[in-house]
Amino acid sequence: MIWSKRMATGVAFAIVSSLVAMGCSEGSSGYEDPRRIVDAEQVPETKRIRRLTADQFFASLEIATGQRWDDQEQFAATLGRPDFAEVTVEGREMSVGFAKLAGDAARETCRRAVEQDRNTADAAARTILRRIGSTEQLDPFDANVGDNLRYLVLRFHGVYATDDADRRLQPWFTLLQDGLSATDEGRFAEAEDRWVAVCTGLALHPDFLTY
Amino acid sequence: MSKRYRNKLDSLTGAHCRGPHLGRRALLQGVLGGAAMYALAPIRPLLAQDTSGHRFVACFLDGGWDVLLAADPRDPSGSYEGIDLGIERLAPEFQDPRPVSMGGTEHLWGPTMLALEPHADLATFFRGINMNTVSHDTAKSYSHTGRQPAGALARGDSIGTVAASVHDKGSLLPNAAISVPSFNRGFDNRFSAIRMNDPREISDLIGPTRNALSDGVEGLLHQALEDAYSCVSPAYSGRLPEDELRISRDRIKRLQEQDVIARFDFNADTPEMDEIRSLYPINTGTGRSVATAAQLLRTELSTAVTTRVRGGFDTHAGEWAADQPQRLVEAFDAIGAMLTHLRNDDPSFERTTVMVYSEFARTPKINGDGGRDHWFADSVMIFGSTLKTGVFGASNEQDLGLISVDPTTGRPDEGGVQLRPEHVMATLVQSLGGDPSPYREDPLTALIEKELTP
Questions:
Q1: Nearest 5°: CA angle at B164, between B163 and B169?
Q2: Mutation test of the interface with chain A: which of B29, B141, B200, B230, choosing the one with the most A Cβ atoms within 10 A?
Q3: What band does B53 get if pLDDT is binned at 50, 70 and 90?
Q4: pLDDT, tens digit (0-9, with 9 covering 90-100), for A110-143
């Protein structure tokens, strides 16, 4: 009896609240969701964001970095590739295992990509350091750093950033330059590692790992 | 400018990427959720989760086991019109089942199950379960989830996922699956299993980062990923991908800080590994898989583990006579070792449940090639304290066929029910303190010794 009364009260509350919420149009609130790509209500369940499958991840990483992950076949099943004998469903969990192995894969391929770029004189043939003027002594404050970061977010995430002030570039600027100054002679020491880290970070970003 | 075009342009220029916002949909969801919680408040105690930190292991025998050599044997001195025991083809040690006392009643156990006999005081056997299919894929999805799949596609949640969702208290890897698929349709993503194709991969998953950068640069990378945000997230109606990845990164960091990987180095010269090597056949895949499962629980890294103990049971031809019993022995020896190991710190399994199962059974008649094919009437073995010890259900004594049983006694009854995986799972889940309603069958409450509710 008591339960029925509470249920009825709850349902009534829900109905009233729904009517109120439906009346709250974006126009009347004066606030528009700035992050919205499309109206969330228009996104059907079947078009929700999904993690890359194992093979999509391997292929994407190879295209983005130009390097193939040596261990990809070893860990393909763990990353969710079905064998269609015992496992017929693609694993797409954003699990600890996926995060760990994706991190290992990104670090390995990015390291090789940056090392290869440093030995490639023709800038157009480089993968990660394509817009950097000189790769002999990498400078985190190189005049072309912003240009190169814009190229990388376009390469990895398909996002066209028009200027260096774009918020999507800021974490990578910080990663490259934090704790250093343009006049610090020691700024060159970790520059290669920091570019590897930028590449790794872009490959571990949700905009790379999901679609 | 049309709204669609403007949105597309925004996505390219990043005009939409400025910060989070409590949208109309989120507001509506919150209000409805709050109303529902208020209305359902009186029944919340029934849904409440156990806080005892109960551990769960599901041991899968891959390929379809011969229950006549295991959980549903026949006395070879009897005659059975629909069963060919094939005694003359079996090695002497596999010819005679053994009487074992379960809850004060004697039942026959298959000749391959010697290693499990010391644990009969914890055992509940379900016999005569209708798997309703003889297709491997379909039966596997069915047996892992306890719900009839759509074709071969699992519709329910793996039992390990359910167990983890009920009992996890914040472990780093709540649910683990070794060499088996795992399904999570209805629970939070943190209960999705961490999957390993091989138990040795545990060292890659919880070990140090490969090709790690210097500590300082790794720290900056970590911070950059914390600060980065996803421009596709607004279209995601679940937990945001960046949040999922952040949780995983934090867990990896904690795993690495705890340096727990040493607890899985089975070749190490430590007293703990000496004990593990003395218990398990650690040089075999079977031994490694169950030892890894046990260690995941004993280290409290996981709450639930599902492991493929062994494959090779799909013996359609003459290899059945030698391989089937030998492989069953290998599997049961390893599971027996795990039960012993887990009883070291939980002697009466007050906070442990172990389930042993296969996708289906094998035919009672031996085929023209000297083997056994696929058969519906399956068995499941549970070791724990939440169900009454003994045997529940039965297959037809004469032909291993499916029969109806009284749902209160488990004894044959023409007016009763035919056991299905749904009955087994609903009963097990209810006893573990979970919600049995997804199985759409009433739990066999007469079989439940205790329910793990607060």
A1: 130
A2: B230
A3: confident
A4: 999 999 999 999 999 999 999 998 889 999 999 9
- Which residue of A96, A167, A180, A192 to mutate against B (max B Cβ within 10 Å)? A96
Q: Is the pLDDT of residue B272 over 90?
A: yes
Q: Chain A within 8 Å of B2 (Cβ-Cβ)?
A: no
Residues with Cβ within 8 Å of A109's Cβ and at least 6 positions away in sequence, in order, are A61, A62, A65, A67, A68, A69, A203
- Domains of chain B: residue spans and CATH: 51-201+266-447 (3.40.720.10)
How close is the nearest chain A Cα to the Cα of B264, in Å? 16
Report how many Cβ contacts below 8 Å link chain A to chain B: 257
CB B124 within 8 A of CB B392: yes
Residue B209 forms contact with A (CB below 8 Å): yes
Percent of chain B with pLDDT over 90: 77
CA distances from A126 to A151, A197, B186, B389 (A): 12, 17, 46, 68
Closest CA to B46 of B437, B446, B355: B437
**Domain residue ranges in chain A:** 54-209
Cα separation of B209 and A68, whole Å? Answer: 18
pLDDT at A32: 44
